[in-house]
């Protein structure tokens, strides 16, 4: 779609490279709107706002949709609906096969109508990770991985053959072969773009996936959550998703974890607090100086548990720790420089060395990280938290409890 037909084409700005040699591309600049309400918006809502501005065509995404998001503080409590176009779609092999089958059927139909079937492609990038086909037949031996992989290929020959065809037949589709890792790990370490550069236009990465734990990517500052197959297919074909403009719970983290306290202890504590607070249908956004030392692995673990505390996502805005992780996982210096430049220019980057502007949240929670104590979960449900020191009493109580 031509940029000129977008009512916001006047705020399209060029992003210069830090060294002054050329530029990274153009972007829709939120500061150029000169609206003081934007500075108070949670970072997660700014991603929805940028998407609405960039995709505004007064047909699928209208100008008043953009206004609703800018006025989030007043419009979110009213449960208004907004359209959202995610930047990409993530599939795994169980839920991804039907999506590829549907695309293949559309090509068949196009052929029968005498049209060009090669025109049928996903309109947004689709990444499909084959990871749900593994059964462990062989364990505790040197060749276990190899033996399991061979059985996996024998059992899933038809499915894998079809997906391999799909990987070359369609544009905009990447298929990550079996044995590469689990979908969420591949998403974090390899697929997550953080900032896209498509034909010279820069914009934040966002993703919907056909797995409820797609939320793990929120630890990387990429807005993402799990959806059903129908919604994922609609997003693949360029349809906006209709969603209620969510409330955002601001979760402030202070201090740092004591030594010997693990990410699991932190996650169980955070999950317990959020379940008690009630966050269904909401975004949770983490902030505060405790974030400046919270490693990305811990963030991803907290984000991954979003379905357990019921939030749409547990979002960690991009900061220097995110950039360190991107370098650690082999993203090029040029890419990381582009990501940082874009997010700083568009007021989506958190810099703990600067004074923090207070953002407005729908409700607030606070946790001093040094208060987190070692604990265990279960025995039945992953989110049940039992402090280690109460474990004996809890165990005895469980013995006599009804199932």
UniProtKB/TrEMBL annotation:
The keyword Nuclease does not apply. Keywords: Iron, Iron-sulfur, Metal-binding. Residues 67-394 form the Aconitase/3-isopropylmalate dehydratase large subunit alpha/beta/alpha domain. Pfam families: Aconitase. The keyword Phosphoprotein does not apply. Gene3D superfamilies: Aconitase, domain 3. This is Aconitase/3-isopropylmalate dehydratase large subunit alpha/beta/alpha domain-containing protein.
């Amino acid at each position: 779609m031509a940029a000129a037909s977008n009512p916001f084409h006047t705020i399209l700005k060029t992003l210069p490279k830090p060294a002054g040699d050329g530029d990274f591309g153009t972007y829709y600049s939120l500061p150029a709107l000169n609206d003081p309400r934007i500075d108070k918006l949670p970072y997660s809502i700014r991603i929805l706002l940028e998407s609405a501005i960039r995709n505004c065509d007064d047909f699928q995404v209208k100008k008043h949709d953009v206004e609703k998001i800018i006025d989030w503080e007043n419009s979110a409590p009213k449960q208004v609906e907004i359209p959202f176009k995610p930047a990409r779609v993530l599939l795994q092999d169980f839920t991804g096969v039907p999506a590829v089958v549907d695309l293949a059927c559309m090509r068949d139909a196009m052929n029968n109508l005498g049209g060009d079937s090669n025109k049928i492609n996903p309109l947004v990038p689709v990444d499909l990770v084959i990871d749900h086909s593994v059964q462990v037949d062989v364990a505790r031996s040197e060749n276990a991985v190899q033996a399991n992989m061979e059985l996996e290929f024998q059992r899933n020959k038809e499915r894998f053959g079809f997906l391999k065809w799909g990987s070359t037949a369609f544009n905009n589709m990447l298929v990550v072969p079996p044995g590469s890792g689990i979908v969420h790990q591949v998403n974090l370490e390899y697929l997550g773009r953080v900032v896209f550069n498509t034909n010279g236009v820069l914009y934040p990465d966002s993703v919907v996936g056909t797995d409820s734990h797609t939320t793990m990517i929120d630890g990387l500052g990429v807005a993402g959550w799990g959806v059903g197959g129908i919604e994922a297919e609609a997003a693949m074909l360029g349809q906006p998703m209709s969603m209620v403009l969510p409330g955002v719970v601001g979760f402030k983290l202070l201090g740092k974890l004591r030594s010997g306290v693990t990410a699991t202890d932190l996650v169980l504590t955070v999950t317990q607090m959020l379940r008690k607070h009630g966050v269904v249908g909401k975004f949770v956004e983490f902030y505060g100086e405790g974030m400046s030392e919270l490693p990305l692995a811990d963030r991803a673990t907290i984000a991954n548990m979003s379905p357990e505390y019921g939030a749409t996502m547990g979002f960690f805005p991009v900061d220097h720790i995110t950039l360190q992780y991107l370098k650690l996982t082999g993203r090029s210096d040029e890419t990381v420089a582009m990501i940082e430049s874009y997010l700083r220019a568009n007021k989506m980057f958190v810099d703990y060395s600067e004074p923090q502007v207070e953002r407005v949240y729908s409700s607030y929670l606070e946790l001093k990280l040094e208060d987190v104590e070692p604990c265990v979960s279960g025995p039945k449900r992953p989110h049940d938290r039992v402090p280690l020191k109460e474990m004996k009493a809890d165990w005895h109580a469980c013995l006599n409890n009804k199932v």
